[in-house]
Protein backbone atom coordinates (compact mmCIF):
# COMPACT_ATOMS: atom_id res chain seq x y z
CA UNK A 1 0.00 0.00 0.00
CA UNK A 2 1.33 3.40 -0.95
CA UNK A 3 0.84 6.21 1.49
CA UNK A 4 2.49 9.14 -0.32
CA UNK A 5 0.03 9.36 -3.19
CA UNK A 6 -3.52 10.69 -3.09
CA UNK A 7 -5.98 7.91 -3.77
CA UNK A 8 -9.64 8.29 -4.80
CA UNK A 9 -12.16 7.28 -2.17
CA UNK A 10 -14.89 4.80 -2.88
CA UNK A 11 -18.09 6.69 -3.48
CA UNK A 12 -20.26 3.87 -2.13
CA UNK A 13 -18.44 3.90 1.20
CA UNK A 14 -19.07 7.53 2.00
CA UNK A 15 -22.04 9.51 3.16
CA UNK A 16 -21.05 12.58 1.09
CA UNK A 17 -19.21 12.82 -2.20
CA UNK A 18 -15.92 14.56 -1.60
CA UNK A 19 -15.49 15.70 -5.18
CA UNK A 20 -19.03 16.95 -5.68
CA UNK A 21 -20.90 19.70 -3.94
CA UNK A 22 -24.44 18.99 -2.85
CA UNK A 23 -27.00 20.89 -4.87
CA UNK A 24 -28.89 23.59 -3.08
CA UNK A 25 -32.22 24.23 -4.74
CA UNK A 26 -33.20 26.88 -2.21
CA UNK A 27 -30.38 29.28 -3.08
CA UNK A 28 -32.48 31.57 -5.29
CA UNK A 29 -35.57 33.66 -4.95
CA UNK A 30 -36.86 36.23 -2.47
CA UNK A 31 -37.19 33.70 0.36
CA UNK A 32 -33.51 32.80 0.07
CA UNK A 33 -32.59 36.49 0.01
CA UNK A 34 -34.69 37.06 3.13
CA UNK A 35 -32.92 34.17 4.87
CA UNK A 36 -29.53 35.64 3.95
CA UNK A 37 -30.54 39.07 5.27
CA UNK A 38 -31.82 37.57 8.52
CA UNK A 39 -28.63 35.55 8.92
CA UNK A 40 -26.49 38.63 8.29
CA UNK A 41 -28.58 40.64 10.75
CA UNK A 42 -28.15 37.94 13.41
CA UNK A 43 -24.41 37.66 12.79
CA UNK A 44 -23.68 41.39 12.67
CA UNK A 45 -26.40 42.57 15.04
CA UNK A 46 -23.99 44.78 16.98
CA UNK A 47 -22.88 46.67 13.86
CA UNK A 48 -26.45 47.00 12.57
CA UNK A 49 -27.78 48.22 15.91
CA UNK A 50 -24.92 50.70 16.15
CA UNK A 51 -25.70 52.10 12.69
CA UNK A 52 -29.43 52.15 13.49
CA UNK A 53 -28.93 54.10 16.73
CA UNK A 54 -26.46 56.43 15.02
CA UNK A 55 -29.00 57.15 12.26
CA UNK A 56 -31.76 57.75 14.80
CA UNK A 57 -29.55 60.02 16.89
CA UNK A 58 -28.35 62.09 13.93
CA UNK A 59 -31.86 62.36 12.52
CA UNK A 60 -33.19 63.38 15.95
CA UNK A 61 -30.52 66.04 16.36
CA UNK A 62 -31.25 67.33 12.86
CA UNK A 63 -35.03 67.32 13.41
CA UNK A 64 -34.85 69.19 16.72
CA UNK A 65 -32.32 71.68 15.35
CA UNK A 66 -34.73 72.84 12.63
CA UNK A 67 -36.89 75.85 13.49
CA UNK A 68 -40.65 75.17 13.66
CA UNK A 69 -42.69 76.22 10.65
CA UNK A 70 -46.32 77.34 10.91
CA UNK A 71 -48.77 77.41 8.01
CA UNK A 72 -52.14 79.12 7.56
CA UNK A 73 -54.53 78.84 4.62
CA UNK A 74 -57.26 81.21 3.42
CA UNK A 75 -59.90 79.87 1.02
CA UNK A 76 -61.44 82.12 -1.62
CA UNK A 77 -64.44 81.34 -3.85
CA UNK A 78 -64.67 83.17 -7.17
CA UNK A 79 -68.27 84.15 -7.97
CA UNK A 80 -68.58 87.05 -10.48
CA UNK A 81 -71.68 89.17 -10.18
CA UNK A 82 -74.08 89.36 -13.08
CA UNK A 83 -74.85 92.70 -14.57
CA UNK A 84 -78.23 93.60 -15.96
CA UNK A 85 -76.87 93.74 -19.49
CA UNK A 86 -75.65 90.17 -19.40
CA UNK A 87 -78.61 88.65 -17.61
CA UNK A 88 -79.76 86.84 -20.70
CA UNK A 89 -76.43 85.32 -21.71
CA UNK A 90 -76.18 82.71 -19.00
CA UNK A 91 -74.52 80.06 -21.09
CA UNK A 92 -71.66 82.22 -22.31
CA UNK A 93 -71.03 83.66 -18.84
CA UNK A 94 -70.47 80.23 -17.27
CA UNK A 95 -68.04 79.26 -20.03
CA UNK A 96 -66.15 82.51 -19.63
CA UNK A 97 -66.01 82.06 -15.83
CA UNK A 98 -64.40 78.62 -16.17
CA UNK A 99 -61.71 80.00 -18.46
CA UNK A 100 -61.23 83.01 -16.26
CA UNK A 101 -60.47 81.11 -13.04
CA UNK A 102 -56.85 80.46 -14.02
CA UNK A 103 -56.44 84.13 -14.94
CA UNK A 104 -57.65 85.20 -11.50
CA UNK A 105 -55.20 82.74 -9.96
CA UNK A 106 -52.34 84.36 -11.85
CA UNK A 107 -53.59 87.75 -10.66
CA UNK A 108 -53.24 86.56 -7.06
CA UNK A 109 -49.70 85.31 -7.82
CA UNK A 110 -48.72 88.53 -9.59
CA UNK A 111 -45.85 90.63 -8.34
CA UNK A 112 -48.09 93.71 -8.08
CA UNK A 113 -50.47 92.10 -5.62
CA UNK A 114 -47.74 90.37 -3.58
CA UNK A 115 -45.63 93.50 -3.41
CA UNK A 116 -48.68 95.41 -2.13
CA UNK A 117 -49.17 92.85 0.63
CA UNK A 118 -45.43 92.85 1.35
CA UNK A 119 -45.36 96.65 1.74
CA UNK A 120 -48.64 96.87 3.64
CA UNK A 121 -47.47 94.43 6.34
CA UNK A 122 -44.00 96.03 6.44
CA UNK A 123 -42.16 92.75 5.96
CA UNK A 124 -38.97 94.39 4.63
CA UNK A 125 -37.30 94.07 8.02
CA UNK A 126 -38.59 90.62 8.93
CA UNK A 127 -35.64 88.62 10.38
CA UNK A 128 -36.65 85.39 8.70
CA UNK A 129 -36.92 87.05 5.27
CA UNK A 130 -33.69 89.03 5.47
CA UNK A 131 -30.21 87.79 4.62
CA UNK A 132 -29.35 84.72 6.69
CA UNK A 133 -26.01 84.33 8.52
CA UNK A 134 -23.43 82.31 6.59
CA UNK A 135 -23.40 78.60 7.21
CA UNK A 136 -20.49 76.36 8.04
CA UNK A 137 -19.67 75.82 4.36
CA UNK A 138 -19.78 79.54 3.59
CA UNK A 139 -17.54 80.30 6.57
CA UNK A 140 -15.07 77.64 5.49
CA UNK A 141 -14.98 78.99 1.94
CA UNK A 142 -14.50 82.50 3.32
CA UNK A 143 -11.57 81.37 5.45
CA UNK A 144 -9.99 79.64 2.45
CA UNK A 145 -10.52 82.71 0.26
CA UNK A 146 -8.97 85.03 2.84
CA UNK A 147 -6.04 82.66 3.32
CA UNK A 148 -5.43 82.56 -0.43
CA UNK A 149 -5.54 86.37 -0.60
CA UNK A 150 -3.02 86.57 2.23
CA UNK A 151 -0.77 83.98 0.57
CA UNK A 152 -0.79 85.96 -2.69
CA UNK A 153 0.74 89.01 -1.04
CA UNK A 154 -1.67 90.33 1.52
CA UNK A 155 -3.91 92.25 -0.85
CA UNK A 156 -6.03 94.74 1.04
CA UNK A 157 -9.47 95.94 0.11
CA UNK A 158 -9.68 99.31 -1.69
CA UNK A 159 -10.69 102.28 0.46
CA UNK A 160 -14.40 102.80 0.82
CA UNK A 161 -15.82 105.76 -1.13
CA UNK A 162 -19.37 107.00 -1.28
CA UNK A 163 -20.54 105.19 1.85
CA UNK A 164 -24.07 106.56 1.61
CA UNK A 165 -24.59 105.20 -1.90
CA UNK A 166 -23.15 101.85 -0.86
CA UNK A 167 -25.46 101.68 2.14
CA UNK A 168 -28.48 102.49 -0.02
CA UNK A 169 -27.47 99.76 -2.46
CA UNK A 170 -27.17 97.27 0.38
CA UNK A 171 -30.59 98.25 1.67
CA UNK A 172 -32.13 97.87 -1.77
CA UNK A 173 -30.53 94.46 -2.23
CA UNK A 174 -31.75 93.38 1.21
CA UNK A 175 -35.30 94.47 0.37
CA UNK A 176 -35.20 92.57 -2.91
CA UNK A 177 -33.87 89.46 -1.17
CA UNK A 178 -36.59 89.76 1.49
CA UNK A 179 -39.31 90.06 -1.18
CA UNK A 180 -37.95 87.03 -3.07
CA UNK A 181 -37.95 84.99 0.15
CA UNK A 182 -41.51 86.18 0.77
CA UNK A 183 -42.71 84.97 -2.65
CA UNK A 184 -41.12 81.56 -1.99
CA UNK A 185 -43.10 81.16 1.24
CA UNK A 186 -46.51 82.05 -0.17
CA UNK A 187 -48.45 79.79 -2.51
CA UNK A 188 -51.81 80.03 -4.29
CA UNK A 189 -53.43 77.05 -5.95
CA UNK A 190 -56.74 76.16 -7.45
CA UNK A 191 -58.66 73.24 -5.93
CA UNK A 192 -59.23 70.90 -8.83
CA UNK A 193 -61.37 72.44 -11.59
CA UNK A 194 -63.50 74.45 -9.17
CA UNK A 195 -63.62 78.19 -8.49
CA UNK A 196 -62.03 77.67 -5.06
CA UNK A 197 -58.53 79.08 -4.53
CA UNK A 198 -56.38 78.27 -1.50
CA UNK A 199 -53.78 80.82 -0.38
CA UNK A 200 -51.18 79.47 2.03
CA UNK A 201 -48.22 81.06 3.80
CA UNK A 202 -45.50 79.43 5.90
CA UNK A 203 -43.46 81.18 8.57
CA UNK A 204 -41.59 80.51 11.79
CA UNK A 205 -43.78 83.17 13.47
CA UNK A 206 -47.05 81.52 14.57
CA UNK A 207 -49.09 84.74 14.10
CA UNK A 208 -47.74 85.87 10.74
CA UNK A 209 -49.12 83.15 8.36
CA UNK A 210 -52.76 83.99 9.06
CA UNK A 211 -52.12 87.72 8.62
CA UNK A 212 -50.34 87.24 5.30
CA UNK A 213 -52.98 84.83 3.92
CA UNK A 214 -55.86 87.11 4.90
CA UNK A 215 -54.01 90.18 3.62
CA UNK A 216 -53.53 88.49 0.25
CA UNK A 217 -57.26 87.79 0.02
CA UNK A 218 -58.04 91.37 1.01
CA UNK A 219 -55.47 92.67 -1.52
CA UNK A 220 -57.16 90.69 -4.29
CA UNK A 221 -60.56 92.12 -3.30
CA UNK A 222 -59.07 95.60 -3.13
CA UNK A 223 -57.75 95.35 -6.69
CA UNK A 224 -61.05 94.06 -8.12
CA UNK A 225 -63.21 96.63 -6.31
CA UNK A 226 -60.84 99.52 -7.08
CA UNK A 227 -60.96 98.58 -10.76
CA UNK A 228 -64.76 98.59 -10.73
CA UNK A 229 -64.76 101.92 -8.90
CA UNK A 230 -62.62 103.46 -11.60
CA UNK A 231 -64.95 102.12 -14.30
CA UNK A 232 -67.98 103.41 -12.44
CA UNK A 233 -66.48 106.87 -12.05
CA UNK A 234 -65.65 106.96 -15.76
CA UNK A 235 -69.19 105.89 -16.75
CA UNK A 236 -71.84 108.49 -17.56
CA UNK A 237 -74.67 106.52 -15.97
CA UNK A 238 -73.02 105.93 -12.61
CA UNK A 239 -75.09 106.84 -9.59
CA UNK A 240 -73.61 108.49 -6.50
CA UNK A 241 -74.87 105.66 -4.30
CA UNK A 242 -73.04 103.13 -6.40
CA UNK A 243 -69.85 105.17 -6.12
CA UNK A 244 -70.18 105.54 -2.38
CA UNK A 245 -70.69 101.77 -1.99
CA UNK A 246 -67.65 100.99 -4.05
CA UNK A 247 -65.61 103.58 -2.14
CA UNK A 248 -66.57 102.01 1.19
CA UNK A 249 -65.62 98.56 -0.11
CA UNK A 250 -62.30 99.90 -1.39
CA UNK A 251 -61.46 101.50 1.97
CA UNK A 252 -62.43 98.36 3.86
CA UNK A 253 -60.31 96.14 1.59
CA UNK A 254 -57.32 98.51 1.83
CA UNK A 255 -57.49 98.64 5.63
CA UNK A 256 -57.87 94.86 5.80
CA UNK A 257 -54.83 94.34 3.60
CA UNK A 258 -52.74 96.68 5.72
CA UNK A 259 -53.79 95.03 8.98
CA UNK A 260 -53.57 91.48 7.68
CA UNK A 261 -57.27 90.72 8.18
CA UNK A 262 -60.40 90.39 6.07
CA UNK A 263 -62.68 93.34 5.14
CA UNK A 264 -64.97 94.37 7.98
CA UNK A 265 -67.95 94.98 5.65
CA UNK A 266 -69.44 92.84 2.88
CA UNK A 267 -67.72 93.18 -0.48
CA UNK A 268 -70.19 91.93 -3.09
CA UNK A 269 -68.36 93.70 -5.90
CA UNK A 270 -65.15 91.73 -5.34
CA UNK A 271 -66.38 88.90 -7.60
CA UNK A 272 -65.26 86.56 -4.82
CA UNK A 273 -66.46 85.35 -1.47
CA UNK A 274 -64.31 84.26 1.44
CA UNK A 275 -65.38 80.78 2.51
CA UNK A 276 -62.49 80.10 4.86
CA UNK A 277 -60.49 82.73 6.68
CA UNK A 278 -56.92 81.95 7.62
CA UNK A 279 -56.63 81.17 11.34
CA UNK A 280 -53.49 81.17 13.48
CA UNK A 281 -52.09 77.61 13.43
CA UNK A 282 -52.42 75.58 16.60
CA UNK A 283 -49.03 73.97 16.12
CA UNK A 284 -46.08 73.84 13.74
CA UNK A 285 -46.62 71.97 10.50
CA UNK A 286 -42.89 71.43 9.92
CA UNK A 287 -40.46 69.91 10.55
CA UNK A 288 -42.12 66.50 10.90
CA UNK A 289 -39.76 65.22 13.54
CA UNK A 290 -41.16 61.70 13.83
CA UNK A 291 -40.93 61.24 10.05
CA UNK A 292 -37.37 62.59 9.98
CA UNK A 293 -36.33 60.30 12.85
CA UNK A 294 -37.98 57.28 11.21
CA UNK A 295 -36.26 58.11 7.93
CA UNK A 296 -32.97 58.46 9.79
CA UNK A 297 -33.48 55.03 11.32
CA UNK A 298 -34.20 53.48 7.92
CA UNK A 299 -31.16 55.18 6.40
CA UNK A 300 -29.04 54.07 9.37
CA UNK A 301 -30.24 50.48 8.94
CA UNK A 302 -29.56 50.57 5.20
CA UNK A 303 -26.16 52.08 5.91
CA UNK A 304 -25.54 49.28 8.38
CA UNK A 305 -26.36 46.64 5.78
CA UNK A 306 -24.10 48.45 3.32
CA UNK A 307 -21.33 48.45 5.90
CA UNK A 308 -21.86 44.73 6.51
CA UNK A 309 -21.83 44.05 2.76
CA UNK A 310 -18.54 45.92 2.33
CA UNK A 311 -17.13 44.18 5.38
CA UNK A 312 -18.11 40.78 3.97
CA UNK A 313 -16.58 41.64 0.61
CA UNK A 314 -13.28 42.68 2.21
CA UNK A 315 -13.24 40.22 5.12
CA UNK A 316 -12.11 36.80 3.87
CA UNK A 317 -11.86 35.16 7.26
CA UNK A 318 -13.50 31.77 7.69
CA UNK A 319 -16.82 31.87 9.54
CA UNK A 320 -18.50 28.51 9.05
CA UNK A 321 -18.15 25.22 7.23
CA UNK A 322 -20.71 25.99 4.52
CA UNK A 323 -18.83 29.08 3.43
CA UNK A 324 -15.51 27.21 3.41
CA UNK A 325 -16.97 24.30 1.43
CA UNK A 326 -18.49 26.67 -1.09
CA UNK A 327 -15.25 28.59 -1.61
CA UNK A 328 -12.88 25.58 -1.80
CA UNK A 329 -15.17 22.87 -3.16
CA UNK A 330 -13.90 20.74 -0.27
CA UNK A 331 -16.10 19.20 2.38
CA UNK A 332 -15.89 20.41 5.97
CA UNK A 333 -15.81 17.30 8.17
CA UNK A 334 -16.20 18.97 11.53
CA UNK A 335 -16.84 22.15 13.47
CA UNK A 336 -15.28 22.31 16.91
CA UNK A 337 -16.92 24.88 19.23
CA UNK A 338 -14.89 27.26 21.36
CA UNK A 339 -14.67 26.09 24.97
CA UNK A 340 -12.50 28.08 27.36
CA UNK A 341 -9.79 25.89 28.87
CA UNK A 342 -10.61 22.84 26.73
CA UNK A 343 -7.54 20.59 26.59
CA UNK A 344 -8.49 17.12 25.47
CA UNK A 345 -11.39 14.85 26.35
CA UNK A 346 -12.18 14.69 30.09
CA UNK A 347 -13.03 11.40 31.76
CA UNK A 348 -16.26 12.82 33.15
CA UNK A 349 -18.49 15.45 31.56
CA UNK A 350 -19.40 18.12 34.13
CA UNK A 351 -20.95 20.94 32.12
CA UNK A 352 -22.66 21.74 28.83
CA UNK A 353 -19.55 23.30 27.29
CA UNK A 354 -17.54 20.11 27.76
CA UNK A 355 -20.41 18.09 26.35
CA UNK A 356 -20.49 20.20 23.17
CA UNK A 357 -16.72 19.98 22.74
CA UNK A 358 -16.62 16.19 23.19
CA UNK A 359 -19.64 15.76 20.89
CA UNK A 360 -17.87 17.77 18.18
CA UNK A 361 -14.70 15.65 18.52
CA UNK A 362 -16.86 12.53 18.38
CA UNK A 363 -18.57 13.73 15.20
CA UNK A 364 -15.20 14.52 13.63
CA UNK A 365 -13.95 11.04 14.42
CA UNK A 366 -17.10 9.51 12.92
CA UNK A 367 -16.68 11.60 9.76
CA UNK A 368 -13.08 10.39 9.49
CA UNK A 369 -14.12 6.76 9.90
CA UNK A 370 -16.75 7.15 7.18
CA UNK A 371 -14.32 8.89 4.83
CA UNK A 372 -11.61 6.26 5.44
CA UNK A 373 -13.76 3.13 5.22
CA UNK A 374 -12.20 2.04 1.94
CA UNK A 375 -8.71 2.69 3.33
CA UNK A 376 -8.94 0.89 6.64
CA UNK A 377 -9.82 -2.71 5.72
CA UNK A 378 -9.03 -3.87 9.24
CA UNK A 379 -5.75 -1.98 9.10
CA UNK A 380 -4.64 1.04 11.02
CA UNK A 381 -4.60 4.41 9.34
CA UNK A 382 -2.41 7.48 9.57
CA UNK A 383 -4.24 10.82 9.90
CA UNK A 384 -2.38 14.12 9.63
CA UNK A 385 -3.83 17.35 10.95
CA UNK A 386 -2.27 20.64 9.88
CA UNK A 387 -3.04 24.36 9.78
CA UNK A 388 -1.56 27.46 8.26
CA UNK A 389 -0.80 29.12 11.60
CA UNK A 390 0.27 27.69 14.95
CA UNK A 391 -2.69 29.13 16.90
CA UNK A 392 -5.40 27.30 14.93
CA UNK A 393 -5.75 24.64 17.65
CA UNK A 394 -4.35 21.62 15.81
CA UNK A 395 -2.82 20.16 19.01
CA UNK A 396 -6.13 20.37 20.86
CA UNK A 397 -7.98 18.55 18.06
CA UNK A 398 -5.30 15.85 17.77
CA UNK A 399 -5.19 15.35 21.51
CA UNK A 400 -8.99 15.03 21.66
CA UNK A 401 -9.09 12.55 18.76
CA UNK A 402 -6.25 10.47 20.24
CA UNK A 403 -7.87 10.26 23.69
CA UNK A 404 -11.26 9.40 22.18
CA UNK A 405 -9.72 6.61 20.06
CA UNK A 406 -7.69 5.21 22.97
CA UNK A 407 -10.82 4.96 25.15
CA UNK A 408 -12.40 2.65 22.58
CA UNK A 409 -9.68 0.05 23.38
CA UNK A 410 -7.57 0.86 20.34
CA UNK A 411 -3.93 1.76 20.47
CA UNK A 412 -3.08 5.18 19.13
CA UNK A 413 0.24 6.97 18.60
CA UNK A 414 0.47 10.75 18.49
CA UNK A 415 3.44 12.48 16.85
CA UNK A 416 3.08 15.88 18.41
CA UNK A 417 4.33 19.26 17.25
CA UNK A 418 5.41 21.79 19.88
CA UNK A 419 3.10 24.76 19.38
CA UNK A 420 3.02 28.17 21.00
CA UNK A 421 0.88 26.92 23.89
CA UNK A 422 3.24 24.09 24.74
CA UNK A 423 6.38 25.13 26.58
CA UNK A 424 7.83 21.63 26.45
CA UNK A 425 7.93 21.26 30.20
CA UNK A 426 6.57 18.22 31.98
CA UNK A 427 7.65 15.09 33.78
CA UNK A 428 8.07 13.08 30.60
CA UNK A 429 9.90 15.73 28.60
CA UNK A 430 13.08 14.13 27.21
CA UNK A 431 13.35 15.95 23.90
CA UNK A 432 17.04 16.72 24.51
CA UNK A 433 17.73 13.03 24.06
CA UNK A 434 17.82 11.71 20.47
CA UNK A 435 15.30 9.05 21.48
CA UNK A 436 12.82 11.67 22.70
CA UNK A 437 11.81 13.17 19.35
CA UNK A 438 11.30 12.19 15.73
CA UNK A 439 13.79 14.79 14.52
CA UNK A 440 16.41 13.56 17.03
CA UNK A 441 15.90 9.94 15.99
CA UNK A 442 16.25 10.85 12.32
CA UNK A 443 19.35 12.97 12.98
CA UNK A 444 20.92 10.19 15.13
CA UNK A 445 19.84 7.44 12.69
CA UNK A 446 18.05 5.42 15.36
CA UNK A 447 15.83 2.42 14.78
CA UNK A 448 12.10 2.49 15.68
CA UNK A 449 12.60 0.20 18.69
CA UNK A 450 15.11 2.67 20.13
CA UNK A 451 12.58 5.50 20.54
CA UNK A 452 11.19 6.43 23.95
CA UNK A 453 7.48 7.23 23.70
CA UNK A 454 5.70 9.08 26.51
CA UNK A 455 2.46 7.57 27.82
CA UNK A 456 -0.05 10.40 28.38
CA UNK A 457 -3.65 9.50 29.07
CA UNK A 458 -3.36 6.13 27.35
CA UNK A 459 -1.79 7.69 24.23
CA UNK A 460 1.77 7.06 23.09
CA UNK A 461 3.21 10.53 22.41
CA UNK A 462 6.44 11.41 20.62
CA UNK A 463 7.36 15.03 19.82
CA UNK A 464 8.21 15.74 16.20
CA UNK A 465 10.87 18.35 16.87
CA UNK A 466 13.69 18.13 19.33
CA UNK A 467 14.86 20.62 21.92
CA UNK A 468 18.22 20.46 20.15
CA UNK A 469 18.25 23.12 17.43
CA UNK A 470 20.92 21.24 15.43
CA UNK A 471 18.77 18.11 15.30
CA UNK A 472 15.83 20.11 13.93
CA UNK A 473 17.94 21.90 11.33
CA UNK A 474 19.75 18.83 10.00
CA UNK A 475 16.91 16.29 10.25
CA UNK A 476 15.54 15.04 6.92
CA UNK A 477 11.91 14.03 7.25
CA UNK A 478 11.94 12.55 3.74
CA UNK A 479 14.41 9.97 4.95
CA UNK A 480 13.13 6.35 4.70
CA UNK A 481 13.90 6.00 8.40
CA UNK A 482 10.90 8.29 9.12
CA UNK A 483 8.66 5.97 7.12
CA UNK A 484 9.95 3.02 9.13
CA UNK A 485 9.14 4.78 12.41
CA UNK A 486 5.62 5.65 11.26
CA UNK A 487 5.03 2.13 9.90
CA UNK A 488 6.17 0.69 13.20
CA UNK A 489 3.65 2.88 15.02
CA UNK A 490 0.98 1.91 12.47
CA UNK A 491 1.55 -1.78 13.20
CA UNK A 492 0.37 -1.14 16.78
CA UNK A 493 -2.67 1.02 15.97
CA UNK A 494 -3.83 4.24 14.48
CA UNK A 495 -1.38 7.13 14.07
CA UNK A 496 -2.09 10.85 14.40
CA UNK A 497 0.35 13.42 13.04
CA UNK A 498 0.07 16.76 14.80
CA UNK A 499 1.97 18.70 12.15
CA UNK A 500 3.64 22.08 12.65
CA UNK A 501 2.21 25.21 11.02
CA UNK A 502 2.73 25.50 7.28
CA UNK A 503 3.60 29.20 7.46
CA UNK A 504 6.56 28.51 9.79
CA UNK A 505 8.13 25.39 8.32
CA UNK A 506 7.95 23.00 5.39
CA UNK A 507 8.43 19.98 7.63
CA UNK A 508 4.65 19.56 7.64
CA UNK A 509 4.70 19.04 3.85
CA UNK A 510 7.26 16.25 4.15
CA UNK A 511 5.40 14.49 6.96
CA UNK A 512 1.93 14.89 5.39
CA UNK A 513 3.00 12.65 2.51
CA UNK A 514 3.14 9.67 4.92
CA UNK A 515 -0.50 10.09 5.98
CA UNK A 516 -3.44 8.27 4.48
CA UNK A 517 -5.66 11.31 4.90
CA UNK A 518 -4.92 14.94 5.76
CA UNK A 519 -7.20 17.42 7.50
CA UNK A 520 -6.67 21.16 7.22
CA UNK A 521 -7.75 23.14 10.29
CA UNK A 522 -9.04 26.73 10.03
CA UNK A 523 -9.64 28.89 13.07
CA UNK A 524 -13.01 30.61 12.84
CA UNK A 525 -12.77 34.37 12.61
CA UNK A 526 -9.01 34.40 12.10
CA UNK A 527 -7.84 32.07 9.32
CA UNK A 528 -8.63 33.46 5.86
CA UNK A 529 -10.01 31.46 2.97
CA UNK A 530 -6.88 32.24 0.95
CA UNK A 531 -4.69 30.69 3.69
CA UNK A 532 -6.76 27.51 3.70
CA UNK A 533 -6.70 27.36 -0.10
CA UNK A 534 -2.93 27.86 -0.16
CA UNK A 535 -2.51 25.12 2.46
CA UNK A 536 -4.59 22.66 0.43
CA UNK A 537 -2.68 23.42 -2.78
CA UNK A 538 0.72 23.08 -1.11
CA UNK A 539 -0.25 19.75 0.46
CA UNK A 540 -1.65 18.35 -2.77
CA UNK A 541 1.46 19.38 -4.70
CA UNK A 542 3.53 17.22 -2.35
CA UNK A 543 1.23 14.20 -2.85
CA UNK A 544 -0.83 14.51 0.33
CA UNK A 545 -4.38 13.21 0.29
CA UNK A 546 -6.43 16.15 1.61
CA UNK A 547 -9.96 14.90 2.28
CA UNK A 548 -11.51 17.80 4.13
CA UNK A 549 -11.29 20.73 6.48
CA UNK A 550 -12.12 21.35 10.14
CA UNK A 551 -13.40 24.60 11.65
CA UNK A 552 -12.00 25.20 15.13
CA UNK A 553 -13.25 27.64 17.76
CA UNK A 554 -16.56 28.06 15.98
CA UNK A 555 -19.30 30.00 17.74
Automatic annotation (TrEMBL):
Keywords: Cell membrane, Membrane, Transmembrane, Transmembrane helix. The chain crosses the membrane at residues 46-64, 291-314. Its main location: membrane. This is Wzz/FepE/Etk N-terminal domain-containing protein. It holds the Pfam family Wzz. Residues 37-120 form the Polysaccharide chain length determinant N-terminal domain. Gene3D superfamilies: P-loop containing nucleotide triphosphate hydrolases. It is found in: Cell membrane. It comes from Neorhizobium phenanthreniclasticum. It is a multi-pass membrane protein. InterPro entries: Bact_polysacc_biosynth/exp (IPR050445), LPS_length_determ_N (IPR003856), P-loop_NTPase (IPR027417).
